Structures are given as C-alpha cells and as structure tokens.
Amino acid sequence: MCGIAGFWRPGAAPDGATLAAMTDAIRLRGPDADGCWLDANSGVALGHRRLAILDLTPAGAQPMLSHCGRYVIAFNGEVYNFAAMRDELERRGEHAAPLSPTLPRLGGGGFTWRGHSDTEVMLAAIAAWGLEAALKKFVGMFAFALWDRETRTLSLARDRLGEKPLYYGWQGETFLFGSELKALKAHPAFRAEIDRDALTLFLRHNAIPAPYSIYQGIHKLPPGTFLQLHAGQKDARPVAYWSARSVAEAGQRNLFRGSDAEAVTELERLLGQAVGGQMVADVPLGAFLSGGIDSTTIVALMQAQSTRPVKTFTIGFNEAGYNEAEHAHAVARHLGTEHTELYVTPRDAMDMIPSLSTIYDEPFADSSQIPTCLVSRLARSHVTVSLSGDGGDELFGGYNRYFWARNLWRKLGWMPRPLRAALAGVLTTLPPAAWNTAFQQLGRLLPAGLRYANPGDKLHKAAEILAVRSPEEIYLGLVSHWKTPAQLVPGSVEPLTLLTDPGQKADLPDFEHRMMYLDTVTYLPDDILTKVDRAAMAVSLETRVPLLDHRVVEFAWTLPLDMKIRHGQGKWLLRQVLDRHVPKSIMERPKMGFGVPIDVWLRGPLKPWAAALIEPGRLAREGVFDPAPIQGKWIEHQSGSRNWSYYLWDVLMFQQWQEHNA
Q1: CA 371 centroid distance within chain
Q2: Average pLDDT of 274-283?
Q3: CA–CA gap between residue 302 and residue 309 (Å, rounded)
Q4: In whole angstroms, how large is the CA radius of gyration of the chain?
Q5: Helices 471-479 and 400-412 sit at what angle, rounded to 10 degrees?
Q6: Which of 24, 152, 226, 295 is the right S-S partner for 157, CB 3.0 to 4.6 Å?
Q7: Catalytic site includes residue 68
Q8: Which runs of E-coded beta strand occur in 149-279?
Q9: pLDDT of amino acid 55
Q10: pLDDT digit string (tens) for 470-489?
Q11: CB-hemisphere CA count at 13 Å for 28?
C-alpha cells in the first residue's frame, strides 16, 4: 500500500521539487520511502511514497523501470497472484519481451528477477501481454500510473471494485494525477474551483460518486477501468476492462445449479483462497473484528490457515446501542485470536472530528468515519496490514433496506399512484410535532406495536416514499439524504449518476438484486471503501478486503436470490460458511451499524461547534448554500421533533472541509 502522484506537461521539463511536494503531501500513505522518476524529454513526472509490505529491500522501491526498459510504473496496492504470474512468465519465457532498439534493456536477452515484489511482476506481465490483458490477469487492489517510453503513452488504471483511489484531470496545460486530492493541490497549476454540481451529489449521498470530485476538472477514475493519454490528446476517456454490470447480468443469466451444500463448499473454497492470498506480507498482519457475520467469517478463515493466533482489533463504546466489543470478544475467545479491544469515550470520538477534513481531503460525511479512524489507529499500533469484512452486505443481501424497500413496494405497488400521492399529502398536512402530540394523547388506546418514539418523524418519512413511481425510486429515497439538493445549492444542477441515469441500469430480474448491484457500484466504492482507505492511510495502515476478490464477486452473482436471502434473513449462504467455524449461538444477534450517536451529540456537546459552522449569516456570506432550509432542519433537530443528523452532518462536514481547504 502506497501513494502515487505525478504530472505530465508535454514539451516542458518536469520540476523535481514540484513532484516532491506532491508526494510529500501524501507521505502518510507511504512513510517508509519516497521515489521520483522524471523524463525531461517527454515532460512526465512519476512520484511514489512507499509503505513497505512485500520485499522490504530497495529492490521493491518505486517508481520502477521494467527489465526491458520500456515501462515505468508508480503503483499503489497489492496484486496477490503475483507469484503465480511470475511462474507463468518463467514457464513461457515471456519475461524477456522484445523491445524497440531505441531503448536500453536492463541486461541481456533474459534477466534475473531483482527481488520478490509484485510490482516487478506486474511490469513483466504488462511487457509480455500488454496492459489490458495483464489487467485482466491481476487479482488484487490497485491504482497505478504507467509510462510507456516507446509510444509516449501515459496510462492510469484502477482495480475492479474500487478499493484504491485515483484522481486525475487537466489543469490548464498540465495533466495531474494522484492517490488523493492533496497531492494534486500541491502542484502550482492546480485551481481549487468547487464544482457546485458535484456538491449536490455529496448532499444526497454524503460522498461524491465517481467520476466526479469536489473540484472542477478533476475526476475519479471509475473502478474496473483504465485510461490512456497520448501527447497532444486531452479528451481521453476511461475504458472498462472489467464491468460489474456485465458480471451481474451474465451471472443471473447463468445461475449456479448445484445444491445448497455444494454452494456452501464452493463459497468457502473461494473465500479461503482469497483470504490465504491476502495474508501474504513481510510485515505484521491482523484483522478488524466487529463480531458481525462478515468480519467473523474473514477472521475464522484466517485463523484456519494460520499456525499462530491472528491479531484482531475492536473498539467499544459504553453506549449499549453502539457497542460491538462484547460480541467481538466472544468470537475472538472461540477462535483463539490474539484480541485487542479499546473502549473509547464520546470525548475520544469527538476529538477525532477536527482532523476529519484533513484525513478526508474531499467532503465526506459518513459518520462511521469516526470509529473507523479509531479502530485503524488501534490496529496500526500492533500491525501494518489489516484485513476487513467489507463487501458482504452488497454481495449477499445483508442491508435492511433490501427487505424494507421490497416489502414496502409489495404493500403499496398495487395502489394507484394518485391515491398514494393524496395519502402522502394527508400525512404531511400536520407537522411532525402535531402528530407527536396526537399520538401521545392516544397512547393508552394504541396497541404496544404502534407506540413509536417520534411518530410524526416516521409518518413524514413514509410520506416521502408514498408517491414513488417505481421500486427503484424507493431505493433512491432510502439512500438519499437531502432529497432535492440542487435547491440547497443555488445555481447548481444535479448530475446524472449510476443511480439516476436510465441508460446505465442493469438488466436484473429481482428488485433485491438490482439494489445489491447499485450498492456495489456506488455506495461500496464511493462511501465504504473510501472511508476505510482514508482512515487507514492516515495512520499508514494497509487494509485488504477478501470478500471483494473478483472471483468471489463473480461467483456471488451466479447465485439465485434464495441463496442470499432466505426466511427473511440476508447473507444466508455466507452464514452457512460461518456455521462451519463458529457456533450459531455466538452469532445470533441483531445487525448493528458501525456508528456514533451524532444525533445526540448535535443537541449536546457538538452544538456550539455545529451552530458556528452553519450560522445563517456565515452561510449567506460564503454563498455556497441557501441558509433557510439548513436553519429549518437545525431548529427542528434541536427541538427533538425530528432527527436531521444525517442532513446536518453533510453540511457540517462540507463547512469544516471548506474552512480548512479554502
């Protein structure tokens, strides 16, 4: 795991000091070493910050030149099947690919491997098979920049599921790229002009989805794509070498035909293969353990392949509704891991907030970023690499919204839309506070099942969904914070995304599978993986995600829905694998999110901080937001009549980011 940065200005000799400033901005991604490669003739500069994981010697240093002398790479990530590719290259004699006579080879007709890094094998594979063919062979997480000295082509590539980030874009006559925005901002050509349209997407989703970024002219390379730029070309577009949509559609057309037992065995085999491959490291390795299905499965498979106790890490909260530590402790005791847990106070969590705008150098407002940062810091004090269980919900149907949206549509879909719209109008005639009062007065007359906290809030949320035209609109409502964000940002137009562009819909038979697909290509890379990458890299910790091995993903998409959701419970097949390692009695508990009580804090200890950031006069002077709707939600939240913490946290995280990045 590392950080990369660089630029290309054709016809201008690159400045080494500028490149050093770019890599220094992301030094925490790679504190062990830095490297640069400059080509005065082409104007290309490649920079690298190294977090040494494999081949800790100088033989693994980057940027790295291929043996044939044609390619130079700056690479962030891990390619787990490098040893198998190395064997294949040696067997076929393809590691000594022919080269244009104008470029010097590093040796004779063949060569001896300089070290045992995956980077060296990647270069040999690209030289032997070409970039796209090599990308299709790589098993791993990666983002890299590759310079072809012969054709004078700069290529950028990103892994299939989007585990590793890569930003790029033209700023004037200079093409910039890097692992994080802070690297691009260190270049003097960078223009920090906020993209108000992209800001609307942030307000809807609490993160900015690829290919957009918060800055005009700067993009995120979408997962599973590569981009090639030639001299004199400015309009290069990403090309897919792997498509989640194609994989999902093909998988559902060619369903797994085996028995339940055969499916369990195959999934366990694939997961064991992925976990084993991701346990290879020349530094201490461990795992995050929440005690939930996903992380417990990963740790169980790690322990099954390890001759020593796996190091596992959990943070706990004293607030019962947010504490997973007790469950994780029970799992660790059963599996025999070397478990470390740390109970943190609200003060510990809140002390993390001022640093969030630096850690996430683009506005980011998933409040579980706070415990993620804390558990990453805990793990880094013991290990350099940590495996996580992310991806299980998206692949195997674990999110509650899959059940909620499906059931709601089944109950409401038969009703004519005008009737549903009229009902929504009735529900919103009274404000939430009035509904709360009415329910309080009727409380003794209502059955226990209808006695809710803040019933007015729930009725207004239900009204938002009643008038939808399709089940997909229910899903969009469930994953949206601000429902009409363009009204909050004057002069903006909300761009189309994978969620809203009809031309990018996947042809899948089940509503649940359509939701899982959309989560896989949006929520997973743009929120979950971004959250983990930045939190871990801020403390120089590498994270690996075995469930997102593309072979596991491709198998998951061949499964019929009832192997994922059965008897009203998600992740059925994954649970069967886990049952072979951990007793059900340990795992039987309600699903718990990984979060902190932001709603309570905004009415208590965070209130002065928040009030100052969204003070109406300040918002009016800054001119980014319309203050009125924000102030309205702030007042309702403070009264306790509504819980607008998600909405407010989005605005607060942008305000804090803007304060530190103006």
Answers
A1: 15
A2: 96
A3: 9
A4: 25
A5: 140
A6: 226
A7: no
A8: 153-158, 167-171, 174-178, 219-220, 225-230, 239-240
A9: 82
A10: 889 889 998 999 999 999 99
A11: 17
Joined tokens for residue 110: 């063949």
pLDDT at 623 over 80: yes
pLDDT computed for residue 248 by the predictor: 98
Q: What 8-state DSSP symbol labels residue 641?
A: S
In eight-state DSSP terms, residue 283 is: S
Does this model's pTM top 0.90? My answer is: yes
Q: Determine the 3-state secondary structure of 309 from DSSP.
A: coil
> Token digits for 59?
């033989």
pLDDT of residue 110: 55
Beta-carbon contacts of residue 121 (< 8 Å; ≥ 6 apart)? 79, 82, 83, 85, 86, 89
- Counting Cα atoms < 13 Å in the Cβ hemisphere of 142 gives 26
Position 453 scores a pLDDT of: 59
pLDDT in tens, 491-531: 999 999 999 999 999 999 999 999 999 999 999 999 999 99
Which distant-in-sequence residues (6+ apart) come within 8 Å of 441 by Cβ? none
Residue with tokens 């969590």: 349
Separation between Cα atoms, residue 516 and residue 475, nearest integer Å? 10
CB neighbourhood size of 661 (10 A)? 18
Q: pLDDT at position 532, please?
A: 98
H/E run at residue 146: strand 140-148
Both tokens assigned to 587: 């795992």
Element spanning 3, H or E:
strand 2-8
Q: Phi first, then psi: what are they for 250, rounded to 5°?
A: -65, -40
Q: Where are the beta strands (DSSP E) in 334-396?
A: 338-344, 385-387
For residues 290-300, one letter each, b for 16 or more C-beta atoms within 10 angstroms of the residue's C-beta and e for the rest, the string is: bbbbbbbbbbb
Residue 493 has φ and ψ, to the nearest 5°, of: -130, 125
302 and 273 Cβ atoms separated by less than 8 Å:
no
Of the candidates 2, 36, 68, 373, the residue annotated as catalytic is 2
Q: What stretches of 111-174 show up as alpha helix (H) in DSSP?
A: 118-129, 131-137
